[in-house]
Specification:
Layout (H helix, E strand, L loop, with lengths): L1 H10 L4 H19 L10 H14 L3 H4 L7 H30 L6 H16 L2 H12 L3 H25 L3 H9 L4 H35 L8 H9 L3 H31 L1
Helix pairs in contact: 3-12, 5-6, 5-8, 5-10, 6-8, 7-8, 8-10, 9-10, 10-12, 11-12
Length: 269
């Protein structure tokens, strides 16, 4: 047995030459690409800004951090969280029928193709552009952020839903059909148990993304904590910047912990 394994190793193709050439090729491209990088003097304002931001995080403005009015960090974080959560829910509600229409194993190919083209068209536009468009329609505020998050969620969530629908085990449905189950019973006991874990996992992942995107959308006036953050940075109020960033870090960590618990529950059943 040992001789057979040794002979197999000896007869195996010698690929170390190709791997070595690949490493040299990648190194050469990295060296060539680095020749276009221009590094400015980091001892000037850039380094001082970074030091001020770090100093602001470690010395946050406690009055702003524990301010319970509409201009406080807690209220703005709650607004950002609500924009992300409601945007995910609205996008998921619209994505469910759109996904079933676009699934090639359930619908005729022309109808599925039209649905996929619509989803692809939605996904091509960045969230920042959607935010600017909805601000023109509804005016600045959280509602514009909600509409933006909903529309952006449709593109990704629908795509993931379609993959889950097309991976359905049809043998379960055939068994239920042979047992004389009604259409509702087949959906209840054959389709939903297969799709629910994948759908929930997709929604949790999309909610994490929307929470970060909602922060960025605040920069264009779509509600949330982004606008106060950019205003504080523009005015060099680094303690306020530190308060906002500290609140964001804590919020993201809490959401990550809750998401991990839910994913573990879905995995283990």
């Amino acid at each position: 047995m040992e001789k057979t394994i040794a002979a197999a190793y000896e007869n195996a193709p010698k690929t170390w030459v190709y791997k070595l050439l690949l490493v040299f090729g990648v190194a050469a491209m990295l060296i060539w690409s680095s020749s276009t990088i221009v590094i400015n003097d980091t001892t000037g304002s850039g380094l001082s800004v970074a030091k001020n931001i770090l100093s602001g995080i470690f010395h946050p403005d406690t009055k702003l951090l524990f301010n319970f009015t509409n201009s406080g960090v807690l209220y703005l974080l709650l607004e950002t969280l609500c924009i992300a959560f409601l945007g995910t829910i609205v996008g998921a509600v619209i994505s469910v029928p759109l996904s079933f229409i676009s699934a090639s194993n359930l619908m005729p190919r022309p109808i599925a193709l039209v649905g996929r083209l619509a989803i692809a068209a939605i996904r091509t536009v960045p969230a920042f552009i959607y935010g600017l468009m909805f601000i023109r329609v509804t005016g600045p505020g959280p509602f514009a952020g909600l509409l933006t998050m909903s529309l952006c969620s449709i593109g990704m969530v629908s795509k993931m839903f379609i993959e889950s629908i097309e991976d359905l085990d049809k043998r379960i449905l055939e068994s239920l059909d042979a047992a004389g189950c009604t259409t509702f019973q087949k959906i209840r006991y054959g389709i939903l148990p297969q799709l629910f874990p994948d759908f929930m996992s997709t929604l949790i992942y999309r909610f994490d993304m929307n929470l970060r995107d909602a922060t960025v959308l605040g920069l264009v006036g779509a509600g949330g904590i982004g606008a106060p953050l950019i205003f504080a940075m523009s005015s060099y109020r680094w303690n306020e910047v530190g308060s906002i960033l500290l609140g964001l870090i804590v919020l993201v960590m809490i959401i990550e912990w809750i998401s991990a618990k839910i994913r573990t529950k879905l995995t283990r059943g």
